[in-house]
User: Which sequence fits this backbone?
């Protein structure tokens, strides 16, 4: 094979989805290490689970962000993780009750 050609791993996924769990100061004080551990303990095919730096939502932490969809969850607890995994990551239905209201604004018109 010529040097200019490259091979890819059989499980290479260029559009891999990712769950980013903030591991910066405020989120850590609010339990984000336990949230990260809860995600890592789940079976989540097709998703990379990653601790991240500050995502700029310090007073709303622990912050969990799902990309590339850009779904932002706030004040996530380890007990919320199974529902996020089953309903959103596996079922495709994000949990609106945990949405960060600064990112996912709702408008009610009467």
Assistant:
């Amino acid at each position: 094979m010529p040097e200019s050609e490259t091979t890819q791993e059989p499980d290479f996924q260029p559009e891999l989805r990712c769950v980013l769990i903030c591991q910066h100061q405020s989120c850590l004080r609010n339990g984000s290490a336990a949230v990260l551990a809860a995600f890592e303990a789940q079976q989540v095919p097709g998703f990379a689970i990653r601790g991240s730096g500050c995502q700029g939502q310090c007073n709303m932490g622990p912050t969990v962000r799902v990309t590339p969809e850009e779904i932002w969850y706030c004040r996530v607890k380890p007990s919320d993780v199974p529902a996020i995994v089953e309903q959103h990551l596996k079922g495709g239905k994000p949990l609106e009750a945990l949405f960060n209201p600064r990112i996912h604004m709702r408008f009610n018109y009467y």
About this structure: The longest helix spans residues 32-41. Residues 1-8 have pLDDT under 50 and may be disordered. The beta strands are 17-22, 47-52, 64-67, 71-73.
